[in-house]
Amino acid sequence: MPLNPANKKHLRTIGHSLNPIVTVASKGLTDGVIAEIDRALSDHELIKVKLSVGDRDLKKQAIIDICERVNGEAVQVIGHILLLYRKADKPNPKLSNLLKPS
């Protein structure tokens, strides 16, 4: 599900006002953290994840692992914040960050 540059720009615009929902800390990507990211993506479609995992290489590997395990796509990474997207099959208009009125 690769996104084109125009779609990424639109998602970055929406994601700018979001706050991180999940934090990946020193214990890394536990099953509980992955389950919470998966649940958040199912509800909101576009979320921010805060990565507090040491050095750059660990952060890059964590981003790859998250994307693979939850079948999502990294839209943007700035500092320790990952903007993550996964299209929902039946998005809930009350929860989806893409369908909420601006």
Short description:
The chain has helices spanning 5-15, 31-44, 56-70, and strands at 20-24, 46-51, 73-78, 81-85. It has 102 residues and is α+β, with helices and mostly antiparallel strands.
Topology:
Elements lengths: L4 H11 L4 E5 L6 H14 L1 E6 L4 H15 L2 E6 L2 E5 L17
Parallel strand pairs: 1-2
Antiparallel strand pairs: 2-4, 3-4
Please characterize this protein's 3D structure:
Helices cover 39% and strands 22% of the residues. The chain is α+β, with helices and mostly antiparallel strands and 102 residues long. It has a single domain (5-85), classed as 2-Layer Sandwich (Translation Initiation Factor IF3), CATH 3.30.110. A 4-stranded mixed sheet has the order 1-2-4-3, with helices on both faces. Strand 3 and strand 4 (81-85) form a beta hairpin. The radius of gyration is 13 Å and the shape is globular. The model has no long low-confidence stretch (mean pLDDT 91).
